[in-house]
Amino acid sequence: MKRIVEYMPINGKALALLLSSSELRLGEAIQLRQSNIDFDSEPVKVKVKAATTKTGKSRLTFMSMEAKERAPMTYSRLTPIDRYQMKS
Q1: Cα pseudo-dihedral 44, 45, 48, 54, rounded to 10
Q2: How many Å apart are CA 49 and CA 70, to the nearest integer?
Q3: pLDDT in tens, 14-45
Q4: What is the SS3 assignment for 46?
Q5: What share of the chain is helix, strand, coil (3-state, %, to 5)?
Q6: First vs last C-alpha separation in the chain
Q7: Cα separations in angstroms, 54 against 28, 48, 58, 84
Q8: Domain boundaries in the chain?
């Protein structure tokens, strides 16, 4: 996985690392906004709203520090989806 991610564009890299480290579903990740992510905690906390989950219940998951550090741009400025939309 690491070798594949290294050759991905920035937007794909950020999304792939977030998905692989946080156990988010793609639909949940797409709905994330900066306010759903606590960058000051270690590991980074990701709050998933009930409206976006498969079960209809909100949940808390975590992003690995590796995922945060490996993206060329900082996650604290934009979520991976926001980056993807900028490139589109």
Answers
A1: 80
A2: 26
A3: 788 888 888 899 888 888 887 888 888 888 89
A4: strand
A5: 50, 15, 35
A6: 24
A7: 9, 11, 10, 23
A8: 2-87
